[in-house]
Amino acid sequence: MIAATEYSDRSPSIVQQPAGRTSKTMIDDNPMQLLREDLRDFAGYSSARSEKRAGRVWLNANEAAWPSVADGEGAVRRYPDPQPQRLREALAELYGCAPEQLLAGRGSDEAIDLLVRAFCRPGGDAIVITPPTFGMYAVNARLHGTRTVEVALRDTPAGFVCDFAAVAQAAESEGAKLVFLCSPGNPSGTLLPLAEIDALAERLRGRALVVVDEAYIEYADGESATTLLARRRNIAVLRTLSKAHALAAARIGSVIADAGLIAVLQRCQAPYPLPTPCVQLALRALAEVPRNTTKARVTTARSEREKLFEALRVLPGLRQVYPSQANFLLARFDDAQAAFDGLLDAGVVVRDFRAAPRLGDALRISLGTPEQNAAVIEVLTRLARVRGVAA
């Protein structure tokens, strides 16, 4: 952990600022100005493992003297490193940032929680979200006593569209500290234009942090918003190993942002967020050969997405299937209950979104193996044929 005496709300980013900018602009651009004032000198908890000490006999953490009977190698007797350097470096290489710009944690969910906790005073601040979107933004805001301001995505024949001007206006008028953008969106599948994200961050400079959740970016055609960090200190990017890297149960996610901001978030984090077995799994997955396999599987998933899209869009009884840059498709049905039940009867479980506002006829179908995707097409085709005969 970084001691409170090392903190300065003018701590420089690891990214060099563009030449020609004034000192006032640099201060306004500093995300630390947006933090809760009562946390700016917060030192956090200093755990035994965060104290870097050399030694052969470790008796400083009240750990068990002998390995667990369930752990013959003794790999989990010791508390883990709060931020294992090897993992941090591997993730930084994967995401194209410096290790100091990255904090690893328990999936993207923990990063969302840390951001709301660090920036929003309970009862006094707000976040902006763009529904339909990932539900945990609003959940974390509610748990922290923070208002949620909604700027709905526009539903168009070409897919859901973000009204960036309305998002900026809402953030300004409501005094929001955080703006959460999901790109590609969940459940919309929409990839947001980087130029629009860049312009939004510029407009909200000194007012709000723009958080871009890229849980599905590996499946998309565009670049990551991490490419904007060199000139926008008020952007934070969320990434995860849960989706493309197939480590959902390991719960390894990252927030990538200004190095000073990352240091503050680490002080707000629980003492031991990364279990040793999960770290070891992640390091094995990020080695060169497994990463090549992951890339090949993502390529297959993208191809399967297009096949499933083309098959669904011509089915009778299917009102609309939205273009997607993620590993799922969102579809509207004339009879979503019949489609849901028919798939379930065939052993296929999809996500029912009918309880979500403006999605009362929608199901979200995650991409599976080619055989599983073919089964979805077969079931829905058969259901459409039966409906046609009944009509």
What can be said about this structure in brief?
By secondary structure, the chain is of the alpha/beta class.
How does this model look, in words?
The chain is of the alpha/beta class and 391 residues long. It has two domains: 4-286, Type I PLP-dependent aspartate aminotransferase-like (Major domain) (Aspartate Aminotransferase, domain 2, 3-Layer(aba) Sandwich), CATH 3.40.640; 299-390, Aspartate Aminotransferase, domain 1, CATH 3.90.1150. Helix content is 35%, strand content 15%. It has eleven helices and 13 strands. The strands form three sheets. Strands 1-9-8-7-6-2-3 form a seven-stranded mixed sheet, with helices on both faces. Strand 2, helix 4 (136-143) and strand 3 (147-150) form a beta-alpha-beta unit. 39% of the residues are buried. Residues 1-27 have low confidence and may be disordered.
Q: Topology of this protein?
A:
Elements: H1 23-28, H2 85-95, E1 102-106, H3 107-119, E2 126-129, H4 136-143, E3 147-150, E4 154-156, E5 159-161, H5 164-174, E6 178-182, H6 194-203, E7 209-213, E8 235-240, E9 252-256, H7 259-268, H8 276-285, H9 288-313, E10 318-321, E11 328-333, H10 336-345, E12 351-352, E13 362-366, H11 370-390
Parallel strand pairs: 2-3, 2-6, 6-7, 7-8
Antiparallel strand pairs: 1-9, 4-5, 8-9, 10-11, 11-13, 12-13
Helix pairs in contact: 3-4, 5-6, 9-11, 10-11
Domain Aminotransferase class I/classII large: 70-380
Cofactor: pyridoxal 5'-phosphate
Subunit structure: Homodimer.
